[in-house]
Design a protein that fits this description.
seven-stranded mixed beta sheet, 137 residues, three-stranded antiparallel beta sheet
Protein backbone atom coordinates (compact mmCIF):
# COMPACT_ATOMS: atom_id res chain seq x y z
CA UNK A 1 0.00 0.00 0.00
CA UNK A 2 1.39 3.40 -0.99
CA UNK A 3 0.13 6.66 0.49
CA UNK A 4 1.30 10.11 -0.68
CA UNK A 5 2.70 12.46 1.93
CA UNK A 6 0.28 15.09 3.24
CA UNK A 7 1.26 18.30 1.45
CA UNK A 8 -0.65 20.76 3.65
CA UNK A 9 2.31 21.29 6.00
CA UNK A 10 5.42 23.45 5.73
CA UNK A 11 7.28 20.22 5.02
CA UNK A 12 5.22 17.35 3.55
CA UNK A 13 4.21 14.84 6.25
CA UNK A 14 4.21 11.04 5.86
CA UNK A 15 0.79 9.50 6.46
CA UNK A 16 -1.25 6.32 6.23
CA UNK A 17 -4.96 5.59 5.98
CA UNK A 18 -6.34 3.57 8.88
CA UNK A 19 -9.54 2.29 10.45
CA UNK A 20 -10.40 2.50 14.15
CA UNK A 21 -12.73 -0.21 15.41
CA UNK A 22 -13.93 -2.41 18.25
CA UNK A 23 -16.93 -4.62 18.94
CA UNK A 24 -19.32 -1.67 18.85
CA UNK A 25 -18.20 0.38 15.86
CA UNK A 26 -15.85 1.06 12.97
CA UNK A 27 -14.60 4.36 11.58
CA UNK A 28 -12.49 5.04 8.52
CA UNK A 29 -10.61 5.29 6.39
CA UNK A 30 -8.95 8.09 8.33
CA UNK A 31 -5.75 9.93 7.44
CA UNK A 32 -3.14 9.41 10.15
CA UNK A 33 0.14 11.30 10.32
CA UNK A 34 3.21 9.08 10.77
CA UNK A 35 5.26 10.53 13.65
CA UNK A 36 8.36 8.47 14.41
CA UNK A 37 9.17 10.85 17.28
CA UNK A 38 5.92 10.18 19.15
CA UNK A 39 5.84 7.41 21.76
CA UNK A 40 2.05 7.11 21.67
CA UNK A 41 -0.75 7.25 19.14
CA UNK A 42 -2.99 10.29 19.60
CA UNK A 43 -6.59 10.22 18.41
CA UNK A 44 -9.15 13.04 18.39
CA UNK A 45 -11.73 12.34 21.10
CA UNK A 46 -14.55 12.71 18.54
CA UNK A 47 -13.27 9.65 16.67
CA UNK A 48 -13.06 7.58 19.86
CA UNK A 49 -16.56 8.55 20.94
CA UNK A 50 -18.00 7.68 17.53
CA UNK A 51 -16.79 4.06 17.84
CA UNK A 52 -17.57 3.96 21.57
CA UNK A 53 -13.97 3.13 22.47
CA UNK A 54 -13.36 1.85 25.99
CA UNK A 55 -11.84 4.31 28.48
CA UNK A 56 -8.72 2.83 30.06
CA UNK A 57 -7.58 5.25 32.74
CA UNK A 58 -5.25 8.19 32.80
CA UNK A 59 -1.60 8.67 31.86
CA UNK A 60 1.01 11.40 31.77
CA UNK A 61 2.00 12.65 28.33
CA UNK A 62 5.26 14.58 28.03
CA UNK A 63 5.19 16.51 24.76
CA UNK A 64 8.45 17.55 23.17
CA UNK A 65 9.57 20.82 24.80
CA UNK A 66 6.47 20.97 26.99
CA UNK A 67 5.14 20.14 30.40
CA UNK A 68 3.66 16.76 31.25
CA UNK A 69 -0.11 16.69 30.77
CA UNK A 70 -2.67 14.34 32.24
CA UNK A 71 -4.44 12.54 29.38
CA UNK A 72 -7.24 10.00 29.03
CA UNK A 73 -6.34 6.64 27.50
CA UNK A 74 -8.66 4.50 25.40
CA UNK A 75 -8.44 0.92 24.16
CA UNK A 76 -9.10 0.49 20.44
CA UNK A 77 -8.22 -1.79 17.52
CA UNK A 78 -6.44 -0.29 14.52
CA UNK A 79 -6.32 -1.59 10.96
CA UNK A 80 -3.73 -0.42 8.43
CA UNK A 81 -4.32 -2.05 5.04
CA UNK A 82 -4.45 -5.79 5.89
CA UNK A 83 -2.63 -5.40 9.22
CA UNK A 84 -5.00 -5.63 12.19
CA UNK A 85 -3.52 -4.39 15.47
CA UNK A 86 -5.82 -5.34 18.35
CA UNK A 87 -5.83 -3.78 21.80
CA UNK A 88 -3.88 -0.56 21.24
CA UNK A 89 -3.92 1.99 24.06
CA UNK A 90 -4.22 5.45 22.52
CA UNK A 91 -4.27 8.95 23.95
CA UNK A 92 -7.41 11.03 23.46
CA UNK A 93 -6.92 14.54 22.09
CA UNK A 94 -9.82 16.66 23.36
CA UNK A 95 -9.21 19.59 21.01
CA UNK A 96 -7.23 18.51 17.95
CA UNK A 97 -8.39 17.02 14.66
CA UNK A 98 -5.17 15.25 13.63
CA UNK A 99 -4.73 11.53 14.18
CA UNK A 100 -1.06 10.83 14.95
CA UNK A 101 0.43 7.35 14.72
CA UNK A 102 3.24 6.96 17.24
CA UNK A 103 5.88 4.27 17.66
CA UNK A 104 3.48 2.10 19.67
CA UNK A 105 1.81 1.37 16.31
CA UNK A 106 4.61 2.12 13.84
CA UNK A 107 6.96 -0.43 15.43
CA UNK A 108 4.47 -3.16 14.50
CA UNK A 109 4.45 -2.29 10.78
CA UNK A 110 6.99 -2.78 7.96
CA UNK A 111 7.18 0.80 6.67
CA UNK A 112 9.26 2.58 4.09
CA UNK A 113 9.24 6.37 4.36
CA UNK A 114 10.33 7.55 0.94
CA UNK A 115 11.07 11.24 1.40
CA UNK A 116 12.35 11.97 -2.12
CA UNK A 117 9.20 10.44 -3.63
CA UNK A 118 7.05 11.85 -0.80
CA UNK A 119 5.20 8.63 -0.16
CA UNK A 120 4.79 6.10 2.63
CA UNK A 121 4.82 2.43 1.70
CA UNK A 122 3.51 -0.41 3.81
CA UNK A 123 5.69 -3.28 2.59
CA UNK A 124 4.31 -6.67 1.61
CA UNK A 125 5.70 -9.94 2.97
CA UNK A 126 7.89 -10.57 -0.09
CA UNK A 127 9.59 -7.16 0.19
CA UNK A 128 10.15 -7.63 3.93
CA UNK A 129 11.71 -11.08 3.43
CA UNK A 130 13.94 -9.76 0.64
CA UNK A 131 15.19 -6.85 2.79
CA UNK A 132 15.78 -9.02 5.84
CA UNK A 133 17.66 -11.60 3.76
CA UNK A 134 19.94 -8.87 2.38
CA UNK A 135 20.84 -7.84 5.91
CA UNK A 136 22.02 -11.34 6.75
CA UNK A 137 24.51 -11.53 3.87
Amino acid sequence: MTTPYQAGYRLPFPCLHIFLFNDTGRLGPLRALVDTGADATIVPIDFLLRVRAEESGWAGLHPFMGETKRVQKYLIDIQVDTWVLPGIYVVADPTGQELILGRDVLNKLPLFLDGPEQQTDLLDDAAVKRLRARRKT
